[in-house]
Amino acid sequence: MKDGKSKQHVTMSAFEKAMASTAKAFSKVDERFNKIDEKLAQHDKAFALLLKQMQVFTEEGREHRQTMATLMHTDISQERNIENLRVRVERLETRAR
Known about the structure:
The chain is mainly alpha-helical.
């Protein structure tokens, strides 16, 4: 034995105990990761639902804007017709006098 160091040997039972302990630790870590994966899967479902709802809101907003544009166009057209009728009535009234 040089330098005052002695060789140490590990028995098979000590090695197996150490490996069992290591396996148990890895198993616990794996369980934690599984729980995290489950939570992430729940979050993914929630985000997918939020995205779908946002798409519905966007589509509803688009439809609303299109409807409002059509109504505004119709309203402007009707206002023009009413104004034209007023002018015609005024002309007729002036001729009748």
